[in-house]
Amino acid sequence: MIKGKYIVIEGPEGVGKTTQILELSNRLQAAKLPVRTFREPDSQTDLTARAIRTITQDPQYPMNTTTEVLLYNAARSQSLQIIKDSVEHGVFCIADRNYLTNLAIQYYGRGDIADYETINRIIKFAVAGVEPDLTIVLDAPVPQLLARLEQRSSGERYDNFDAAFLERVRAGYLWEANQRNFPVVFADADPQTVSERIWKYVTAVLAIRNESKTIASEIQSVGEIIQAEPPLLTPLSTVNEPPVTDRSNPSDTKLLVKQPSGGYKITAAGREYLDNTISDSEGNVYAFNNSLPPSTVAAAMARLSRRGDDLRLTLLDEFATDRGKDNTLLKRIITAYGDDSVQQLTGIHLVVENASNLLTKKLEWGRLA
């Protein structure tokens, strides 16, 4: 079996890592390669890493800086085991961050641990030899980083940056990249240009033959990987796509109207569609009936986590008039991103809108436990 690759995209907040990881994932999938993305040091499929991340990212949990360093690396140890296993099964793992973030923020940026050797010993113990095949550090001027960060909402422990702090963090990334011989990609250009710069490094790594000890590889270059048909690699797991259920397709009827002030207004046709789909088209608590296949409901809920608005708007805007999108989205989320929590969205679909923070944690606890 041909092993996969472990690729890390690093850099300070606001540099565009999320955008580039998505673009790289799309390119690799277009090359018929099985891909999973991670936000390290946590894993979508590891409960322990997920629980640790909940603590480290919530400012309501007070902790000293030493505890913070240790917790991040405890989560890293968990998630790296999943990455290692995935790579052994031929999956190409793309991680948003790795241990460079600990160094850049907690050593160079904040000075949580003053001894460079100490923080590196902690990292080395957690990593246990699972090093990336490629680590790319994205870089951009601090004023540009700040401008991008101002467009985001705050709330996580590292969300509040000032210029001096970002300068130290940026310098830390550049110094570590130089010391460790990691390529640096200047990310001040448009996303497509930056993506092309990253792709040059990725294709060089893909062309390196990396085989298991049991089955010899027939792949000689990245060109063979990209052009291979059928796929030369088999995904770790596949999603059996059910046939698209035949349902009414109101494609020629407006369900939503975008308002000049922003947001959407549900039309009479949209309200009728919802009345035939859910138990309450206006209240905060409602359940789905059996008019939609579970895959559509699960995909709409998964998509909602990226939009952050009312699920009913998501359903009308993206799924009511787009047949088959549910199966495509679920395949991308489960197979490519490894977010198997989406598979739990089956059975009775009950939605609570505008829940308080306390109610949200109460509702989530059953899944997390």
Characterization of the model:
This protein is of the alpha/beta class. The protein has 14 helices and nine strands. Strand 6 and strand 7 form a beta hairpin. Helix 1 packs across helix 8 and helix 6 (142-149) packs across helix 7 (163-180). The longest helix is centred in the N-terminal third of the chain and has 24 residues, at 65-88. The model is unreliable at 154-159 and 211-252 (pLDDT under 50).
Q: Work out the number of β strands.
A: 9
**Lateral arrangement of strands in the main beta sheet:** 2-3-1-4-5
Described by the principal axes of the CA atoms, the overall outline is globular
Question: In terms of per-residue confidence, which ranges show pLDDT below 50 for 5 or more consecutive residues?
Answer: 154-159, 211-252
The radius of gyration is 22 Å
Summarize the biggest pleated sheet.
5 strands, parallel
Topology pattern, helix = H, strand = E: EHEHHEHHEHHEHHEEHEHHHEH
Strand content: 5-15%
Distance between the termini: 35 Å
Structural class designation = alpha/beta
Number of helices: 14
Helix content: 40-55%
Overall residue-averaged pLDDT value: 78
Index terms:
single chain, 369 residues, alpha/beta, five-stranded parallel sheet
